[in-house]
Amino acid sequence: MDRDGQGISRRRMAATVGAVAAGAAAGAALPGGTASAETAEREFHADRRGGRPARPNVLVVLGDDLGWADLSSYGSPDIRTPNLDRLAGQGVRFTQAYSAAAVCSPTRFALYTGRYPGRLRGGLEEPIARPDELVGIPPGHPTLASLLKAGGYATAMFGKWHCGFLPWYSPLKSGWDVFFGNLSGAVDYYSKVSSNGPDLYEGEVPVESLDYYTDTIASRAADFIRGEHDGPWLLNLNFTSPHWPWEAPGDRAVSAEITARIEAGDTGALNHRDGGSLDTYREMVRSLDAAIGRVLAALRASGRERDTIVLFSSDNGGERWSYQWPLSGAKGSLNEGGIRVPNILRWPAAIRPGQVSHVPVVTHDWTATILEAAGVRPPGGHVLDGHSLLPYLLEGARPPRRDLFWRTKSARALRRGEWKYLRSGTGEALYNLAGDQREQADLSRRDPALLAELRTRWEEIDKTLLPYPS
Length: 470
Description:
Elements: E1 8-10, H1 19-27, H2 37-48, E2 57-63, H3 82-89, E3 92-98, H4 104-113, H5 144-150, E4 154-160, E5 178-182, E6 193-194, E7 197-198, E8 201-202, E9 205-206, H6 213-226, E10 233-238, H7 252-263, H8 278-301, E11 308-314, H9 336-339, E12 340-346, E13 355-357, E14 361-362, H10 363-374, H11 390-395, E15 404-407, E16 412-416, E17 419-424, E18 427-432, H12 448-462
Helix pairs in contact: 1-3, 4-10, 6-8
């Protein structure tokens, strides 16, 4: 049975869209020497004989604008993602996981601080678009990296930062020992030019690279994993794929055109609204999956796979080429398609393989979960808004019962159990997601008392956050 009627059910893959693909991933040994789910099950029991494992390494992988159903294990009819499907089969695939926000920067604020984005001025930007002294994660503010670093972890980030620009903000100022990547929200995949000019840094020093960016940062991550480590490590691997511009591996002519337009002053060139195709998008997602496969192969070869937490997610819902069915909405909206994301967790030494969880979870829950797994407590006064899922995942405890909260400058949403309150430009609505994931049947007139109750709760949380600038 499911835990709590909705929790983790081992191999109950048929419960959600994409179940058949996920079931195949869980049961089959795929290229690369990965053990089958049955072998992983035996190894899991062997690891658990000694109680909770020692402090794990942590690998957090983010896709960018990856839609909820863009992976074959989540139901994509056209994109095969064998490496992420295999990862899902070896751990837990979450069917009701959410990003903390509907766009890039606020979600990253939530992941790095463990708190609602609106607790910091920079988290109010949707997203951060240009250098601004007031907008970023303040140096000295506790982050996942700074807290783990104080607890003896080596820390590294490769890829997209998007939490403030130099000279005021950078990963090195917020707890990461090593950084190679872009500070902005998007760069051309080959030239690494952004709307603000060249944007690729080694630490805080500008550098050049003309390789395909997805492959470049995957190689950096694999090299880090293969390196010598005296203790545990945290690695944040933040891909820009499949975010625009729409460039698949080999699309150098497209890159050259976009780069030339940016350098000529075309501020909309990088958004690439006049380009892209379903085929290009599919190739971008496939290349993302292949790059992640190479990183996971390096982890396996290092001998540290079993005692490493691997978390995969997306920073928000998909954009114009994403496959979102049956969800409505997309990136930027608080409908399910804008905030529900693929989410996979693997920790072979501690978590049983081949599971599916239907429990709602959100970005900042993972901050709390990772800190608890590492045995690290935030300093006094830094209260996390996320809830650790470790007791649920490791001991079978009931999952956290709380309301999930979102806001943008123009919309608000709150989820309690299966109920979702949503207010947007079209007014207020009340949905029951148990039978209406597509958010088409507005039940607000049938249950005005519940609508008012959820509205009041949203307003209570909102009062604790910073207001949006006028």
